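Researcher: First entry.
Model:
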Amino acid sequence: MISAILKTCAAAAALAGALAALQSTQAANAYDSATYAPIGASTSVPWGWVDFCQRYAGECDQGALPARDINLSATAISEIARVNQWVNAHVEPETDPDHWGLADRWDYPLDGKGDCEDYALLKRKMLIDAGYPRQALLMTVVKDGDEEGHAVLTVKTNKGEFVLDNLNDEMRPWTATGYRFVKRQSQTDQNVWLTIGPSLQARL
């Protein structure tokens, strides 16, 4: 089922190419001024990730890898933007209680529905399958302006860190999202999570 999603994405991505190229040109200054988030100590792993790994063990048991960043070339910007826009356009937002009858479940949106972490998981998988390093694609927990927990995908590059968000089609520098960053996956071990800035509790 995931392979079918990826094939559909490949066809749709060509149509989004021009838009992505325009976006990458307009955002050049933002890319040049991006920074890196201050990473702290190890912290608790979100239950949603633990549960996801129990159901998709083969995607979580590869062990530690050396840290790697994405080289943020014009091609990379275009490809990452296309994936971000395609997933946002083709997944229908639905809360976990409505979707699964559960308070929290992280999963691939195989039926075309999902919430924030499901969007992020699919973008992560599609980019890994496209050849980008897992170590640079980090599931991340943030808090929004209402102090509600939210999940995004951090893209760590040689020009700073960027966020892919289901609430925005732009690949934005992490400092331009308006979120309070809480924790994310370690680059070297996806099953280790690290604090970002001050330690906070997020409901994810």
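Researcher: Second entry.
Model:
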Amino acid sequence: MGAQSTSTATPLHLFRMTDGLIVHQALSAAAKLGIADLLKDGVRSTTDLAATLEVNDDALYRTLRFLAGQGVFHETAPRMFVNSALSQWLRSDVPGSVRSVLIYRGSPFYFSPFGDLLYSIQTGAPALEKTHGVTGFEYMRRNRDEGDMFDNAMTDVSMLWAPGIVAAYDFGRWGWLMDVAGGNGLLLATILRAHPALRGVLAEQPAVLERARQREFWSPDLTGRVRFEPMDFFEAVPPGCRAYLMKNIIHDWDDERARRILLNCRRAVPDDGVLLLVEYCLGGENTPTVGKTVDVVMLTMTGGKERTVREHRELLTSAGFSLNETVPLFAGCHDSGSETGVRPLLTAAPNRAATVTER
């Protein structure tokens, strides 16, 4: 919802903005129940769906009726539903599905801390730690189901972004590429497929690497071109590559801990190498953007933050890098203050090296 002018603003505008809570949780419930999968072959009644799912018929109907009003599912006759163009993306068997993301976002792990957002505003500390008693990463280490749920959600997000990232930059020029904290490795696998001569390293926590090895996108043609390196990036980043990639890593951390990660990257990146960051960049205008939304998510969940291009430059410089260029993925993000909320790819070279020439 865009900003309202003084002449058109009413109390109802604020009231209606809170409806997002209901939409959010209804979508998550539909995703977890697998409604879209059950409707993939056509129209079914809520009575039939409720019997299959062992849920309350009337409650299911009211929820699907509400979502149909949002364009998610269609009610073709009384209490008869079919998938819509939107709900197709809730199917688990469709490339580009966001089902895992919506399941994750509706889970108590993700959703509950926002009930304590005021705590984050008062203290600057992540509300998640108040809600769950430990950091989010520690909570996932202790609870395998939540860790798997997070991995699945981040893999779905990577599937959405990977084609744009691959198209925006010539990774093949570097010979070896390390994906630092690359999760299940979907992005690295996509890059390797696009550049047959490139070799890669997936550097991650040991438990994450174990799950990554089991993923279906590591086909036999890729396994000979990738290494799996256990890593704690607060201690060290493995050497051995010319290019190092981090997607959505620096935004998880405050400036002090982000600088620590970047300093470890600087020790690993050779003087003729490059560090590649995929992060949101915030502009100066107070307009609704994905980046500003994610910034509040970071405040609440991790204690991290989204940054402007200038803030990224200052952070990188403090760790021994020079920011060379911002490469748009789907739209521009520039120092001018304009903002789309779309993540660019930031290229940074060691200060002691010659400037890397980009296409």
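Model: Note on the second entry: Residues 144-168 form the longest helix (25 residues).
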